[in-house]
Amino acid sequence: MEILLVEDEPSVISLIERGLKGENHSISVAMDGFTGLKMAGLNQYDLIILDVMLPGMNGLEICRNIRKTNKDVPILILSALNQTEDIVEAFNRDADDYLTKPFKLDELRARINRQSRKARQQTTTSNTITIDNLVMDRDSKNVQRGGKSVILTATEYRLLEYLMVNKNKILSRVDILEEVWGMDFNMSTNVVDVYVNYLRKKIDHPTEKKLIHTVIGMGYILRNEN
């Protein structure tokens, strides 16, 4: 994979470069935010890893700017900030994954490999999913409910896609965290509930028929009650 690493700590840069050496990854490094954003715009990368606290421009601003022109490149946030609100804010900027410092190289490798698998799977899965009058085109990443377009962030889209692929199946919060966010951290975080509520406001609230349901004590399910 062609990876852009935007990180200003030499020790972290060295750790990642050494840790990924020999795994068919090519790593380009930017040590400040402005350089990172410029490199992201000029080159094609398979993955971008962003620190949050950077000179010039922080990683969340870089992520927001990248998404203006590139909706598809996977972005992994690497940060010492580990509160729920920090994580939610990163996904609100359309990051794909979030890994807190200090981290283990094995976990970083696993997350990179996961993004690579997701990219391959997107080329082999069915292009359109339909449940009742909710339609998702996985090629264009367009979602419609009742013929009207629904504008979703990248994280909201991934969550809805996971619910739709697993329609009529109860998904626990742990299942959703692992699949949508690729996370294994404090299970007390309410990031799943926050994003389910975001989805409900866009998918269900404008209509009388609700598709996203809570199963108390178990998780969430997307189903057509008819």
Automatic annotation (TrEMBL):
Origin superkingdom: Bacteria
Gene3D superfamilies this protein is in? 3.40.50.2300, Winged helix-like DNA-binding domain superfamily/Winged helix DNA-binding domain (1.10.10.10)
Residue ranges of the annotated DNA-binding region, renumbered to this chain: 126-224
Q: Which InterPro entries match?
A: CheY-like_superfamily (IPR011006), OmpR/PhoB-type_DNA-bd (IPR001867), Sig_transdc_resp-reg_receiver (IPR001789), WalR-like (IPR039420), WH-like_DNA-bd_sf (IPR036388)
The answer on whether this UniProt entry bears the keyword 4Fe-4S reads no
Q: Which residues carry this modification: 4-aspartylphosphate?
A: D51
**Entry keyword set:** DNA-binding, Phosphoprotein, Transcription, Transcription regulation, Two-component regulatory system
Give a yes or no for keyword tRNA processing in this entry. Answer: no
Q: Which residues form the OmpR/PhoB-type domain?
A: 126-224
Q: Which residues form the Response regulatory domain?
A: 2-116
The record's section on PANTHER family has: REGULATOR OF RPOS (PTHR48111)
**This protein's name:** Response regulator transcription factor
Give the source species: Sphingobacterium kitahiroshimense
The organism's taxonomic lineage, starting at the top: Bacteria, Pseudomonadati, Bacteroidota, Sphingobacteriia, Sphingobacteriales
